[in-house]
Every structure is written in C-alpha cells, then in structure tokens.
Amino acid sequence: MKEQFLNLQAKDYKEWYTYFTKNHLLDIISTSVEEHVEQTISEEKEAKEKYKKLVCVSCWNKYNSESYALWKIYSDLSKGVMIKTSIERLKTAFRDTDEQIQLSEIKYLDYKKDKMQLGNMNYPIIHKSIHYDYEKEIRLIYKVPFESGLEYDWSKEENQFGKYLDVDVNTLIEEIIVSPKAPQWFFDIISDLLQKYNLKKEIKYSDLK
Q1: H-type helices in 157-209, by residue range?
Q2: Is the pLDDT of residue 190 over 80?
Q3: Average pLDDT in the 94-103 region?
Q4: How far apart are CA 147 and CA 72, in angstroms?
C-alpha cells in the first residue's frame, strides 16, 4: 500500500484520497485531512503573526567600516547618526537590565531555494531575505511576558510601539558618527546633547564627508 501510494501521480492521488476519505477516513474524523491541514497551517500562521507583536528588536549592523548604502537608506546621507559599539559593549551595557535580552546575528535566505527551519518561534525574527544581506544585521531581541493566547496589553507601556529598557549608555556607546552631508547645526545639536547628558564620547563626521 505504501509503495503504491508513493508512486501515485497527482490525479491518481486525488482520486485515491477521495475514495479513502469517503470510505474510511470519514468514519474516524468529521473533517477531511485536507481541511485539518489547512486549518492547522492557518492557525500556525496566525500564532506567528501574534508572536511577532510580542517581540521587540534593536537592530545593528556588523561592519568594520562605514557603509554608504546604509547611510543613504537610513539617513539620506544628511539626517542621522551612527552609534559605534562592539559585541562586548552590547552585552555589558545590558548586564544589569531586569529583562532578558537575546543577541543574534541575522541569517539571510534565498527563499526560492532555501527553507527556514521549523520548531522555534524566533526563527522568523532572525531570518531575512538574502536581498538584505548587505545589512550584515545583528539584533537584540526582547520578548514581553504574555498570558495565554499570545496577547499583551501594550496600552500600559509608555511607548505602545516598543518598550523602554534600562541600559548603561556610557558603556554602550564607543563613538558617535554624524551623517556625511549633515549641516553643521545638526552636528552641534548632537554635541550639545552629549554635554547635556554628560556623555563623554567622541563625535565626528563620517569618513564619507
């Protein structure tokens, strides 16, 4: 029976499945296997989407030098700053944080030929399309505590689009780099903020300036 089943073509399988369902399966269950599978897939997809809403991420990129592409995409070359840090600084900066923070590199997949592994709800959080490979991304991941049903009341948070966590900013920041085409007044504002909050960190323009 098993060998015959494996050799069935699609049309033959449909006919066999229809026959089997009518004569055997319906005696055991009230819904068809196909309906059951579709329902299970739908429920799993819904659970994954709910889980994503319980996860907060802080995105970093792993480069030994600056990236023109990232400056262009995220600051239009003139409207942003880059915080330079290290893996060790990231770990130490959150050492006294009450919440549990996870750290993971992003794995990039060609979804036309690669498949994401199953069995871990975090997999969709730490995988992206290979088209974003240039980002070389690292993510800090925090999952909010939730009750049954994968639900969390975000209205109790100061920021309903994320969560504020305690961090040792002096340890986190090694250096601050300003967009290559940012005007001088923008640079001065960042410098004033460092003084205001007593952050004795080097600040400089991008090497692309």
Answers
A1: 169-172, 184-196
A2: yes
A3: 91
A4: 41
